[in-house]
Design goal:
Elements (H helix, E strand, L loop, with lengths): L4 H9 L13 E10 L2 E11 L4 E5 L6 H7 L10 E9 L2 E2 L7 H7 E4 L10 H11 L6 H14 L3 H4 L12 H13 L5 E5 L7 H14 L4 E5 L3 H7 L2 E6 L2 E7 H6 L4 H7 L5
Parallel strand pairs: 3-8, 3-9, 6-7, 7-8
Antiparallel strand pairs: 1-2, 1-4, 4-5, 9-10
Helix pairs in contact: 4-5, 4-7, 5-7, 7-8
The structure holds adenosine-5'-triphosphate.
The site of adenosine-5'-triphosphate has 13 residues, from β2 and α2.
Keywords: ATP-binding, Nucleotide-binding, Phosphate transport, Transport
InterPro entries: AAA+_ATPase (IPR003593), ABC_transporter-like_ATP-bd (IPR003439), ABC_transporter-like_CS (IPR017871), P-loop_NTPase (IPR027417), PstB-like (IPR005670)
Protein name: Phosphate ABC transporter ATP-binding protein PstB
Length: about 270
């Protein structure tokens, strides 16, 4: 959905100013190129994610947002034709190093997908699975505690505490998405990647997930791909605009939506293309 100039000014009125500081990034991508066979999907992207920020990735369909996001926890390893070049670090360490345990990496850098994808198991088991395989609980009581805390942090506890044994798939779409967020949180991630997490949700469920992202901000570095510029303006502190595989411009969300430096960014946010 594209925003018109008057909408943009209304959207940005409520946004706080963010002070620019030089800080060590939680994740840093340097000159990242991604290829699917002959297709050059991401072209030399440099981007930092910070611990206490939500970073929105916006841009027209097919510009490489999801591909780039999936590089950040090596989800693209599962695509046989996909090749990633350049450097991506987490706390300064190369996540593509041969010595990296990818299962461990994906616990530290969790992911929430466009379509809620709970396991075909109970609500309890959906959340308990990760902590169990990562050995985070010594006793059943510890595990119960992790499940309850994760569901609380995901804003779902009160709705499900009396039916933890029912299937996760029986929840509403919005509840399923919050269950998937609880599942990601349960293994103590440091970064959460979200690929259009609200696109399958109705406006009320979307508002709940956005409120949740607002609460999670500060505890995790969050990167979110979204097609909604209103959503990017509401929930992010930084916005990165992608076009044809290039990161055209990145900056404070307020600046990107009010005074973009690049003409392509301006054209996109004012609905001239995309
Ligand atoms: N598994 C794949 N195999 C081959 N090509 C792919 C694959 N996934 C994506 N691509 C191609 O890579 C390019 C970038 O796609 P990507 O899904 O990252 O874009 P996007 O900006 O996230 O798009 P959208 O907003 O529509 O989800 C496109 O040309 C797409 O066709």
């Amino acid at each position: 959905m594209s925003a018109m100039p008057d909408q943009l000014s209304r959207m940005t009125e409520a946004m706080p100013e963010v002070t620019q500081t030089t800080r060590t990034p939680k994740m840093a991508a340097r000159d990242v190129h991604v290829y699917y066979g002959e297709t050059h999907a991401v072209k030399g992207v440099n981007l930092d994610l910070h611990q206490d920020e939500v970073t929105a990735l916006i841009g027209p369909s097919g510009c490489g947002k999801s591909t780039f996001l999936r590089c950040l926890n090596r989800m693209n390893d599962t695509v046989a034709t996909c090749r990633v070049e350049g450097s991506i670090t987490l706390d300064g360490k190369d996540i593509y190093d041969n010595k990296i345990d990818v299962v461990q990496l994906r616990a530290r850098v969790g992911m929430v997908f466009q379509k809620p994808n709970p396991f075909p198991k109970s609500i309890y088991e959906n959340v308990a699975y990760g902590p169990r395989i990562h050995g985070l609980a010594e006793t059943r009581l510890d595990l119960d505690e992790i499940v309850a805390t994760s569901l609380e942090k995901a804003g779902l506890w009160n709705e499900v505490k009396d039916r933890l044994d029912t299937p996760g798939t029986a929840l509403s779409g919005g509840q399923q998405q919050r269950l998937c967020i609880a599942r990601a949180i349960a293994v103590n991630p440091e970064v959460i990647l979200m690929d259009e997490p609200c696109s399958a949700l109705d406006p009320i469920a979307t508002a709940r997930v956005e409120a949740l992202i607002e609460e999670l901000k500060g505890r995790y570095a969050i990167a979110i791909v979204t097609h909604s510029m209103q959503q990017a303006a509401r929930i992010s502190q930084k916005t990165a605009f992608f076009h044809l595989g290039n990161l055209v411009e990145m900056g404070e969300t307020t600046q990107i939506f009010t005074t973009p430096r690049e003409e392509r960014t301006r054209d996109y946010i004012t609905g001239r293309f995309g």
